[in-house]
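Internal tracking record. Fields below are filled automatically when a chain is submitted to the structure queue. Please do not edit lines marked as system-generated. If the sequence contains nonstandard residues, flag them in the REMARKS field before resubmitting.
Queue: standard
Priority: normal
Entity type: single polypeptide chain
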Amino acid sequence: MRFGVQTALQNTTPDELRPLWRRIEAAGYDWISIWDHFYGVGGATSNLEAVSMHTALAMETSTVRCGALVYCVDYRPIAVLANAMATIDHLSAGRVTLGLGAGYHEAEYQAYGLAFDPPGRRLDRVAETVEGLRGLFTGKPTTVDGDHVQLTDAVCEPAPVQARMPIWIGGGGERRTIPMAGAIADGWNVPMATLEDFTTKCAILRRSAENAGREPGEVEASVSLGLCWDRSRLRDRFGERADVLAPSILSGSTQEVIDRVAAYGRAGADWVFVSVRAPFDGDELDRFATEVIPALG
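SYSTEM-GENERATED OUTPUT FOLLOWS
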């Protein structure tokens, strides 16, 4: 397994995030990512814009994968997304992993006048966006005649540094999202999944990849989990949702956390991400890096 940190962009500032990213990288994590929201979770309206902060992340670090979990395909035209990601890949010397999702935060759609289509149509857009980005990232003229994405000899130049920029799909839907990830993506992420739920979903991912004729290990599986070493602080940290989220929050002794993470690895996780929101606790992340990662990495 490999390990990373998902840094939420709500209720924080660039001045808080930049030293946090440097600290995470110095601690030995292999990945740092941002999310894509106009509004934060839980009704927070203070939220930094994703592409801007993805760029800052690329410039502030030198070794970690610079991820996004995940860009909503409805928030930007494919031309904007493709050229932004290619440029960030140059700024990071080829360290970008692009996550895509169908969106779910209806309040954002309504506030900004975006059509919140049924899930099936939003997922169709994800599939067509992946197809379009695959072509655009080659740097060659790309044509896509889809219901949602139309490209006519479109070129994204300069192309990304990476010969194949990894495109991941995020979400837990077992009928469409996970089978799609298994068939066409380089990776898949599910946030805050219990071990039982992750085990089921990861099996669907592997089966879908096999049915699509892909090689074992061609699609990386990841899970994002909370971290709160002191169980007595769960309610302070996660509020009224603490009891619901507790099964997907790493807590307790070092050995308990190691055992929990190892179980996700046995279930198929290639990556485990610690998901954090402001106010950030760098000491907790340092402890995970020094006590857990060496035992499992």
